[in-house]
User: Which sequence fits this backbone?
């Protein structure tokens, strides 16, 4: 191995920054424990770090003591979850990414206008469960081109689509093309639902691929956007591997490679990329640098519940 190129942009997006900082600030304000429904973001290192600070991650609002503080994760929740938390008098802070909230709002508005909603996404993902919960009787999930080809909708119904924010841009466009062919009157959201960070990271990987022999994607194995980065590389014929951190790198993946690319999913801390760079340095690689560095300046305000609580405590 002669060289390592780092994709840019990579790593934390504004929604992840906001969610992680929300838990940290809630712990500082409330003291431990602060409960978090599901993983705040899909990264095992982040979850363990917050657990060490006093966060307790739970699967359900019913796992939280009545009246306790509870943070909703970046992936969003269904209205039924919010109602259940209110019944238990939980002091909730909603760290849902604003771009996910936008999709929820679109789905709710389409449903209110009597549309059948096609949700493009992955079954079982928290974001999909939350969006479906906005209009469960009106929403049909489509995961693939084959699903889109087989989809049956009520004749004459008004139809609209929304998407999960962390999908493959190329695959999603293929699915949308099928939906538009089969349902010519289908209505699109006012703006693409795939978030800026997901799109940017996929674009950065595509730019990098011509220069590398293998790609390492730093991210946890339940991270949708990280998995999509692996798929983008493999679709272009470049070997790619997802690693939670440097300890998961298999040196055999690099056999015969002269240049390795490294990127990270939107929920992976930059320190994990530094760890991968150190792994290469320990093996004699000295040429490690950014490839066509790009800058993102998106930032989201912290949740209103947290800001109010902090003002009251001041």
Assistant:
């Amino acid at each position: 191995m002669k060289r390592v190129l780092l994709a840019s942009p990579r790593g934390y997006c504004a929604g992840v920054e906001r969610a992680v900082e929300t838990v940290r600030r809630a712990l500082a304000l409330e003291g431990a424990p602060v409960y978090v429904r599901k993983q705040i973001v899909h990264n095992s290192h982040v979850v363990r770090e917050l657990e060490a600070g006093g966060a307790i991650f739970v699967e359900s609002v019913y796992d939280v003591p009545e009246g306790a503080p509870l943070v909703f994760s970046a992936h969003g929740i269904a209205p039924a979850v919010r109602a259940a938390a209110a019944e238990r008098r939980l002091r909730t802070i909603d760290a849902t990414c604003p771009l996910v909230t936008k999709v929820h709002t679109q789905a709710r508005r389409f449903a209110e206008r009597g549309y059948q909603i096609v949700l493009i996404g992955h079954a079982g993902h928290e974001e999909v469960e939350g969006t479906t919960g906005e209009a469960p009787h009106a929403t049909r999930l489509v995961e693939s081109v084959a699903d889109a080809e087989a989809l049956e909708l009520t004749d004459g119904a008004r139809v609209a689509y929304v998407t999960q924010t962390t999908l493959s841009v190329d695959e999603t466009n293929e699915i949308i093309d099928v939906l538009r062919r089969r349902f010519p009157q289908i209505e699109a959201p006012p703006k693409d639902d795939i978030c800026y960070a997901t799109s940017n990271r996929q674009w950065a990987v595509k730019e990098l691929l011509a220069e590398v022999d293998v790609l390492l994607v730093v991210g946890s194995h339940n991270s949708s956007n990280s998995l999509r980065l692996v798929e983008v590389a493999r679709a272009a014929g470049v070997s790619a591997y997802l690693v939670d951190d440097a300890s998961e790198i298999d040196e055999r993946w690099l056999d015969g490679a002269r240049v390795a690319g490294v990127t990270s999913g939107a929920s992976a801390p930059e320190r994990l990329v530094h760890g991968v760079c150190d792994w290469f340095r320990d093996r004699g690689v000295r040429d490690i640098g950014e490839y066509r560095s790009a800058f993102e300046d998106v930032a989201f305000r912290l949740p209103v519940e947290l800001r109010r609580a902090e003002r009251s405590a001041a």
Observations:
- The chain has a mean pLDDT of 96.
- The longest strand covers residues 259-264.
- The radius of gyration is 21 Å.
- The chain has three domains: 3-12+196-290, 14-97+300-313, 99-182.
